[in-house]
Each structure stands twice: as structure tokens, then as C-alpha cells.
């Protein structure tokens, strides 16, 4: 009886260790980075999660803003990228941002010569 209890205790300890590791390293939804400066520091990319349920097709999807150094919003976009899937946004140069999403693919936005932002082919 003692060897059986010892074996069961070892299994219990192993299971608790696995559960602990999963809790520390486990799956979590990707959270937006508060602010990401452009390489030259003149613009800021701010991502957030849409929590409004007014349009359920955009609920829990990635939103972003491009701001100048004083905080003025130059451009904003509500994407269709679900935060329940893997995604990331980053600067690709000083005037271009890229969204990579495992559910909708890769999209890019670029500042035009007139200062306006528009979606461009990636």
C-alpha cells in the first residue's frame, strides 16, 4: 500500500507543477502596447481593443491611432483583427505601420505626401 501512495503522491506533485507552469506561462490574449514611437520619434502608434458592443463584428477587435508628438490624433482605424487571435502592429519605417493578424492577414497604412494616412498594399 505504501508504494502505491508514494506513486500517487509523485503524480499529484507533478500535476501541480504542470498546472503552476501553465498558469505562469500559459495562454493569454495579446494586450495592446500603450505607445510605440516611430523610429524617428516624431509619431506614436497607439493600439487598443474595441470593447463597444454597438457593432458585434468589431467587438474585441484591434483599433489603432497615429498621433503626433504632441498627442494630436492624425489617423485612427477600427480593424477587423480579432484580439482573440495572434496579432501584432509595428512601424515599418517612419511613415508606415503594419498589422499582422492570424485571422485577417497582413495590412499596412502609410502616410501620404499630403500628410493623410491610407491603407496600402503590403
Question: Keywords for this structure?
Answer:
122 residues, alpha+beta, four-stranded antiparallel beta sheet, 8 strands, 20% helix
Structural commentary:
By secondary structure, the chain is an alpha+beta fold. The protein has one helix at 2-25, and strands at 36-37, 43-49, 61-68, 73-82, 87-91, 96-101, 105-111, 117-120. It has a domain at 36-120. It has a 4-stranded antiparallel beta sheet, with no helix packed on it. The protein has a 4-stranded antiparallel beta sheet with strand order 5-6-7-8, with no helix packed on it. A hairpin with a 4-residue loop joins β5 and β6. The radius of gyration is 22 Å and the shape is elongated.
Short overview:
It is built from one helix and eight strands; from the N terminus they run αββββββββ. With 122 residues, it is of the alpha+beta class.
Topology:
Layout: H1 2-25, E1 36-37, E2 43-49, E3 61-68, E4 73-82, E5 87-91, E6 96-101, E7 105-111, E8 117-120
Antiparallel strand pairs: 1-2, 2-3, 3-4, 5-6, 6-7, 7-8
Amino acid at each position: 500500500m505504501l508504494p502505491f501512495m508514494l506513486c500517487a503522491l509523485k503524480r499529484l506533485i507533478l500535476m501541480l507543477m504542470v498546472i503552476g507552469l501553465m498558469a505562469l506561462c500559459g495562454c493569454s490574449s495579446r494586450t495592446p502596447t500603450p505607445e510605440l514611437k516611430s523610429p524617428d520619434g516624431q509619431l506614436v502608434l497607439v493600439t487598443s481593443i474595441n470593447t463597444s458592443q454597438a457593432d458585434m463584428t468589431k467587438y474585441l477587435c484591434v483599433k489603432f491611432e497615429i498621433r503626433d508628438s504632441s498627442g494630436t490624433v492624425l489617423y485612427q482605424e477600427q480593424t477587423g483583427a480579432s484580439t482573440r487571435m495572434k496579432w501584432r502592429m509595428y512601424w515599418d519605417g517612419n511613415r508606415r505601420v503594419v498589422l499582422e493578424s492570424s485571422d485577417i492577414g497582413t495590412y499596412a497604412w502609410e502616410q501620404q505626401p499630403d500628410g493623410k494616412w491610407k491603407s496600402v498594399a503590403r
